[in-house]
Structure formats: C-alpha cells, structure tokens
Amino acid sequence: MSRRRRSDAPRRHEFVVSAVVVASFATFWVIAALVNDSPVVGIQYAVSATAAATVALPWVFAARLLWRAWWSRTGVRLSTMDGPARLLTAAATVLPDHRRVWGTAMTAELAQVVDRRARWRFAASCTRTAVWTPRAGRLPVVGVGLLIAGAMIVLGLTVRAMLPAMGSFAVCFSVLVGALALATAVRSPGLRRPAPGLWLAVAGLVAVGGCIAATAYAVSEHPGLVMPWATAGYLALALTFCLWIALAAPRAVAPARLARPVALGAAVVLGAGVLAEARLSSEGLLASFFLLPLAVVFVASAAVTVVGRSFRAGVQTAVWVTMLGVLTVFAVGLLEALRRFQIDAALILDAEAGTTFDENLVSLTFMLAVLPLWWLPFGVLGAAFGREMVSSGAPAGSGRGSCAPAP
User: Fold this and answer.
1) What is the pLDDT of residues 86-100, one digit of tens each?
2) What is the 3-state secondary structure of the chain?
C-alpha cells in the first residue's frame, strides 16, 4: 500500500463508520414503522424519523471519535498484518489476564511460520484454544456453574408459582442468568475478584436487584396486571446484560479506579433528580429522562478524562454512569409511577390520564433501550472534550503535560 493510500485509509474508515451508524438507525426506524400496529399518518412518520435522526446524530460523532482513538493505538498496527495475524491478535485480546503471556507467545510463534496455508491453520487452532481454553480442574468449576444454573431455574419457577404475574419475567431471567453463570464458569479457572472492583460489582447487583424488587412490588399492587412476554423478555435480557457487566466486565470497560466513585455518585444524582422531579412536579418526566442526564454523563466523563488524563477512562466512566444511572432511573421511576397512578391514574412519562398501569411498565422497560442510546454518545463526547482540555492546557513539546494516548 502506498504512503498516500495508507494516510487516506483512516478518513475512508471514518466515513464507513458514519455510514454504518446512519444505516443502523435507518433500518431500526423502518422496522419500527413496519411492525407498528396502530394507524400511522404521514406526520407521524416525519416525527418518528426526526426522533431517530436526533438520536443518530450524536452517535455519528461518538462513533468517529471511538474509531479514531482505536485506530491511533491498534488500527495502524493491524493494517500492517495479514489475515492470520489479525485473527490471532483478535483472539489474544479476549483472553483473560492470566492467559495473556500465552497469547503473546503464540503471536511470536506465528511470525516464524512462512507458508500462508500453515499460517491460517495455526491461527485458527490458536483461536479455537483461546475460545475454549483447556484447563486442568475444569470439572469442579463447571459443576459450580451447573449448580448455579439449576438453582436459578428452580428460583424462577418458584417465583412464577408464587407471583404468576411475574412468571414470564422470572422464567426468562432465570434461564438467562443460569446460562451466563454456566458460560462464565466454563471460561473461568476459578473464583476471581470482579474486574470492575468490589464496590461497583455490589452497586450493580443492588441496582439490578432494585429493578426486580420495584417491578415485583408494582405488579403485586396490581393483581390484574399481566406482563407481556415481549416486555418480560426484554427486561430480563437488559438486567442480565447489566449483571454481566457488573460481575464479569471485559477489560475494555473495566473502569479505572478514579471512575468508580464518579460512576456511583452520578447514578445517585440521576436517581435523586428523577425522584425530586416526580415529587415536585405534576408533569410528565419524559424531558427529565432525556435532558438532565446528558449534563451528568457529559460532566462526569469529562472530569475523569481531565483528572486521569486518559480518554479511555472517560469512556469507561460514560459506560458505567449510563448503566448504573439507567437502572436507578428505572427503579425510582417505576415506584414513582405507582405512587402517581394511585393518585390520579396518570402515566409517569407524559402525565396522560385514563390508561392502565401496565403502560408505565412497558414504557419504562422501553426506556432501558432508548436511554443508553441517548446518554452514552454524550459521555463519549464529554471524554473527547476533556481530552481537548488536557491537550490545550499542556505546554508545547511537554511529554509530562500531554494527554495520555487514546486507546
């Protein structure tokens, strides 16, 4: 590849990244319009398209920033490799910390293989070993995983028998968590300290448990409420994903030490903000869900980036503030929705009256998907803003004053 073509590659890649983001949101909008059962007029198409474009725009900038950061650290190196070397490098990145030396050794050994077909066979074999690493003493760990999976399924069936309205959620959640426990046990050599740190892991567990408890309490207060399977399935999937992040987060999102108290504090601020707005105002909270958190996520990510002098730490902060904040907002919002519905039968998001309470549960569950899509890119933008502040404040040519290389 010529030097000019190599220098133009990042720009072409950024254009492709932007196109993928736009195409993804456009596809989602088309699918949502096709599956909508209610009658839709032309103005509603325009409004929904505008909403999708509003969410997509910050993601275009955030995706380009993330791609540029990844390219400056990893992409340039990968661009000089052939296919087998890229495959082996990708496999080595998913290895746990105690297996990183093995990945480095296999990468060095691949450099000694000249024949292209032999290189592919070697890289494929190493990738298979990285995904399914042979370990002595695997059986006890897998046995523990099987016990946890079985216990979760029994627990789900028990909850279904005791609280039938939560039955669909209990079955979905217990099966997903059981499968997650078994998969983690297969990959893990034994019990280890959670990668995000003990306090963040506990906070994640408490947040997920709070969401389940709030849902169970709201359902028990409305005996006639039936949770649709689609709502129950998505709620179970979202909470299981958050549980996985809290207990077994990959290295890419395991937060720096500085980001941990910031993420906890920001989640508390978001929950308190929703609670205060719900108690002080009789209007819907939809604007609060979308506007107030942007400042919190942006400022938290920018502050960690400036203090820690690391763009990566700022992005990690955005991930954890978003996850803990969304769970906190869901639990607090559902409890406040129950209180408000008992007073005036109004929905928590738009204060519309004359509806059933299950619409609160469905809409708040839907927020578990929408809010991260809306909050997270502003966290990335905050991290980029913090990096620019550090770079602009550094003396020219000063190595100690410059911002740490972005991942």
Assistant:
1) 777 777 776 666 666
2) CCHHHHHHHHHHHHHHHHHHHHHHHHHHHHHHHHHCCCCCCHHHHHHHHHHHHHHHHHHHHHHHHHHHHHHHHHHHHHHCCCHHHHHHHHHHHCCCHHHHHHHHHHHHHHCCCCCHHHHHHHHHHHHHHHHCCCCCCHHHHHHHHHHHHHHHHHHHHHHHHHCHHHHHHHHHHHHHHHHHHHHHHHHCCCCCCCCCCHHHHHHHHHHHHHHHHHHHHHHHCCCCCCCCHHHHHHHHHHHHHHHHHHHHCCCCCCCCCCHHHHHHHHHHHHHHHHHHHHHHCCCCCHHHHHCHHHHHHHHHHHHHHHHHCCHHHHHHHHHHHHHHHHHHHHHHHHHHHHHHHHHHCECCCCCCECCCCHHHHHHHHHHHHHHHHHHHHHHHHHHHHHHHHHHHHCCCCCCCCCCCCCC
